[in-house]
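pasting input
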Amino acid sequence: MLSAQGFGGPGKMKEYHYAGAVENRFSPYAFNGGTVLAVAGEDFAIVASDTRLSEGYSIHSRDSPKCYKLTDTTVIGCSGFHGDCLTLTKIIDARLKMYKHSNNKTMTSGAIAAMLSTILYSRRFFPYYVYNIIGGLDEEGKGAVYSFDPVGSYQRDTYKAGGSASAMLQPLLDNQIGFKNMEGVQHLPLTQEKAVQLVKDVFISAAERDVYTGDALRVCVITKDGINEQTIPLRKD
Amino acid sequence: MLHSLNPHQQQNGGFSFENSRRNAVLESSLLEGAYKTPNPRKTGTTIAGMVYKDGVVLGADTRATDDMVVADKNCMKIHYIAPKIYCCGAGVAADAEMATQMMASNVELHMLNTGRPPLVAMVTRQLKQMLFRYQGHMGSSVIVGGVDVTGAHLYSVYPHGSYDKLPFLTMGSGAAAAVSVFEDRFKPNMELEEAKQLVRDAIAAGIFCDLGSGSNVDLCVITEAGVQFLRGYDKPTAKGQREGQYRYKPGTTAVLTKTETPLSLDVVDESVQLMDTE
């Protein structure tokens, strides 16, 4: 049976547009790529991100790290829409200062995470297009990772990957840090050296297959002695 | 003719547009649910070609992408058409592959029919007529280059069937990056080594500045004397060195059940084929 839709009258075919009517609207968002990763250890935390900023098929910058230092014990990794990443980090910095002035103490990682959740949810109907991961030390000095979705849902994790290559990194971390899907393997606690090595290796693999990840890797290691930053080159293609 | 088609008539091969109307309705009515038709794999490429003193140099990168994930790190984009005519393909990978294979077989038949070696112009004409017939649904952009009895020629053909004949050409998502290198340094009648270096630099510009292109540079030099296919001519990028060991001991994967079925077979022939794992 031929559909009546195709006929504009006896003996005539209706004008056929393949994609239908297309409305061109201004989109307030852009996707700038980038991958972030955070791992929590016994007495350390690592936040790592690649440094490529892209849009469409072009590269804006090869040196735009996505890790932002918040306090001496907390680093946040933000990827997604760069405009919102910058504004969000500015707002968090301002709120940290306000807290410091009213309460006479620095915000703890857990407090920052809770605050970020409320900041993100306050924009529930025009969200910040940012995937956040906070890494730092909690009040007891143990490593803490908090991962967020764009509208503020968060939880504390041991390890989390976010951003464009997150789907490639997360299963690898589940296997290597969480010992998932393995039998008869010793569950050794994660040392700082092993964690840094793992982070570098997973980013090397991510850069192979994700076009948005590459150029360089910025690794921030947070310990009670402070925040140590390293930059390692990645594929530039 | 769609209005004369009835369900009992056999389709004669070629594309079937039965689902086009349904897809169009689905796309427009389910826009809120962000419905997207599945994307065919594109090569997201940088291809380039130029005419030099003794012939033609064609170049291509080797990355094939599936949206924004690398599907193949070392694919071949320079295809054989005739002994001295080669073709670089960009756009939808399957379309480029099929179009060039069709051209290669047509050229062979034409050579047997006419008893003459093929002309680059003949390949271009057949290619553009085929692509125009498919009204742009075959999404392949190609650069055809080669040497024939009339000399060295370079053509580019677009998915809808238009073509250009120029001394240097670039196509694919990295075309802008590559053509900027050509515009800077191209001169007519360049020497071989200079020409190879220029094409290599143009492709490298696409590899580094375009996210859809990457991995290695393949070159193909075609002259009156013959063809030099330089697969992996330059490898400007390298995979980083991993520090950890990620091999698993046998027994790491849990075995839930095991069934053994003995097959009584004789080994007749053994051959080993290496996998391209890098």
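fyi The first helix of chain B runs from residue 20 to 29.
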